[in-house]
């Protein structure tokens, strides 16, 4: 069974090489092998999770080199659950993207772009969850960074390049800081293997150990978008195509949370920075949700709620007890799924009406009842309405806070309740503006072409090109040729993606995949609807399986806090 541990990393990388060799040819075969490999990774993840639950952590030393020389991969309960949830989500997002037509335009590029980059991203995520040493944790982050920059800037528009550049600069800064932290750790402990560090760091002077803890927390807080290190996120994610935004928002920030969970429990038990973490958690909750209240674009609303709800997970980590860790794990699994689903729904709205600006939407509950249901269920789940999984996770965290009894813990319990109520208010605001009220004048009609503009200097030219073009003259959506995520145009008041700011009529700052024009449609491609519906069902399954899920996460928390099962599995004792 240990031999299966590397496969979630190896399989996507091997298929990526095959795809690069194929290039832009054989579209159907490319789609098939992408879905097949992610399906295989999902099956492997479930097998690893069940095996780790029944038999304890699984570990493998690549090349049969023992620590600290060899590369160690470890699958315990936490890693198995994270792999399973992330594999399911990435598979659904891939199906969604095929329906949107992103990959079908790869013939416009020298080599296929989307599929290889997406599979490399999946391999990086899997590497991070399975990494048994700090160096390979760093390697996993860098694999994700390379792939995410490609995906974030797909289409090559000025807005996406600008947002992607900000994302890369921040990520590179955190990577340099991570390298410094790794070097310092090796200098004081003589190893970067996590199991060996768990033993040796206890002999390091407290001041040095606290410095290392602070540096690693800073790195992971940047990755997780914990306030005040989250300013980059609201401007980076909303500009990308809908499937890319969904997988980034739902999954990539949780990789940072996972790293905090792993290092805080294994390397720094009884950590001295608990109060600082609680302060960061409270600030993330409050600032994030207040930012969401102030937004009028759906993607930016969801980006700020993402920052806010990261605070719940940091809350559980800061409590450092079994109840807090268990609640944090439940909430990570819940939030990956629900946040991804909401961004997929935002992509459906944009595909149908040409915008996610709430002031220009309306009447969707009447004209698109299925879309309304697909939004309403995860929105209420995010708000924590009983008995949904959001309520289960928040209740577990708040009970752990009450049991802790400290001043900061009580402050976070109050902050959690207030944030949950404000999240409900924000979701109700979105529902009222986009779904419940009548559509405002000037709403998009079916067949409006959403054209790309490389920069502001070409706005007039783009507008002239649009004049006289018959609606629907671009590729027809649903045929597999329409692509990407388009922004509003044609109503005389289009908006820059995610900003709510008007740009000249007939122009749009964001573009579809590879800059191709797309067309709005009231008949959404069925793979997009099926993938989104499956994501909603996955979120609901956490409610149906709430008892077994809570039992599993409690066992995972006990295992993390005990540390001994992990250390013995890696060191062979």
Structural class: mainly alpha
| Structure summary, number of beta strands | 4
- Measured between the Cα atoms of the first and last residue, the distance is 18 Å
The tally of structural domains comes to 1
**Largest sheet properties:** 2 strands, antiparallel
The H-and-E topology, N to C, reads as HHEEHHHHHHHHHHHHHHHEHEHHH
The proportion of strand residues reads under 5%
Shape: globular
Helix share, percent: 55-70%
Low-confidence stretches: 102-111, 447-517
Molecular structure report:
The protein is mainly alpha-helical. It has one domain. The chain contains 21 helices and four strands. The strands form two sheets. The chain has a two-stranded antiparallel sheet. It has a two-stranded antiparallel ribbon with strand order 3-4. α11 runs parallel beside α17 (407-436). The longest helix is centred in the first third of the chain and has 32 residues, at 158-189. The protein starts with 6 loop residues before the first helix and ends with a helix. Residues 102-111 and 447-517 have low confidence and may be disordered. The chain crosses the membrane at residues 32-52, 78-99, 111-131, 137-155, 167-194, 214-233, 240-261, 273-294, 301-322, 328-349, 370-388, 408-428. Residues 444-499 are annotated as: Disordered. This is Na(+) H(+) antiporter subunit D. Its main location: membrane.
